[in-house]
Amino acid sequence: MSRLLTDEEIGRQLGELPGWTRQGGEISASYQAPDFPTAVRLVDEVALEAEDMDHHPDIDIRWRTVKFVLSTHSEGGLTQLDVELAHRVTQAAARLKATADG
Ligand SMILES: C[C@H](O)[C@H](O)[C@H]1CNC2=NC(N)=NC(=O)C2=N1
């Protein structure tokens, strides 16, 4: 069980998560993949991280843009789990980008 973060904690930790923004009790980021299969691969990698954490993002795929929205539903807002998952999503996107860039 993870407690709700304070505004100060959220602001400080978002500073280390480029691309992520806060909308009230959620944080979100969008990634543009080179093509649709790569966008689906990103979702697939994030699915493994989410299962590992037992913490799951809301995901929207539109062609090659993937948007992740994170919130701790049981707490009704943002907890450290969301920050941790945001880091894992960021790392998965960076790995795929490195693969795509060769
Ligand atoms: C029982 C299980 O741990 C809970 O339902 C988990 C699963 N994944 C979850 N994911 C998110 N984002 N919020 C939750 O509150 C949540 N709860």
From TrEMBL:
EC number, as in UniProt: 4.2.1.96
InterPro entries cross-referenced by the UniProt entry: PCD_sf (IPR036428), Pterin_deHydtase (IPR001533)
Entry similarity comment: Belongs to the pterin-4-alpha-carbinolamine dehydratase family.
Entry-linked PANTHER family: PTERIN-4-ALPHA-CARBINOLAMINE DEHYDRATASE (PTHR12599:SF0)
NCBIfam families membership: PRK00823.1-2
UniProt name for this protein: Putative pterin-4-alpha-carbinolamine dehydratase
Entry keyword set: Lyase
SUPFAM superfamilies membership: PCD-like (SSF55248)
Reaction equations catalysed: (4aS,6R)-4a-hydroxy-L-erythro-5,6,7,8-tetrahydrobiopterin = (6R)-L-erythro-6,7-dihydrobiopterin + H2O
Broadest EC class assigned to this enzyme: lyase
GO biological process, one term: tetrahydrobiopterin biosynthetic process
A single GO molecular function term of this UniProt record: 4-alpha-hydroxytetrahydrobiopterin dehydratase activity
